[in-house]
Every structure is written in structure tokens, then in C-alpha cells.
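Reply to dn_fold:

You asked what the input looked like. This is it:
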Amino acid sequence: MYMSIRFTGTEVNYYFLCKKKLWYFSHDIQIEQGSDAVYLGKLIHENSYQREKDVFLNWGC
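and this is what came back:
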């Protein structure tokens, strides 16, 4: 008998990016959404260096 395991692309991404972030996501914990620091960072990012392309940074989570 085979068991079917389902996971999303986001879960695969978080698995390779940051295991802690995957754990938070799989337990429906979203700590970043209410953070003033994250909001400010997103605001600065959207309004700075608009001619530059987005860059992915892996902070070694």
C-alpha cells in the first residue's frame, strides 16, 4: 500500500531555504506579517533602487 504525501512549492522552497521557516509555515504561524520592522523594510525596498533588479539573499536561517 502506498501513502500519498502532499506538499506545496512553498514548502519545498522553505525546506531548502530555512527549516525553521518551514516549521512556522506548516504550523500556520506567520510572525512576519505584524512586524513593524518588516513593514518598514518592505516599504524601503519598494521605494529604493527602482532601476535595480530584485536580489535574493539567504541569511543562513
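The helical segments are 9-17, 19-26, 36-47.
Hope that clears it up.
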